[in-house]
Amino acid sequence: MGSIQKQTVRGADGRMEDIWALPNDEAFLLKLFTELFDDHYDKISWGPLLAGAAYELKSPRKPIRISHSDGYLTVHWGDKGHFHLCIGDIRVPAGRPNAEEIIAQRRPGRVELFRGLDRDGYPHSWGLRMFNSKDEPQIAVYFPNPYVTDFDEVTNDPDWSRIMLWEDLLPRYTGSALDGLDRRGRGFGRY
Question: Comparing C-alpha atoms, which of 35, 60, 190, 173 is closest to residue 111?
Answer without folding.
Answer: 173
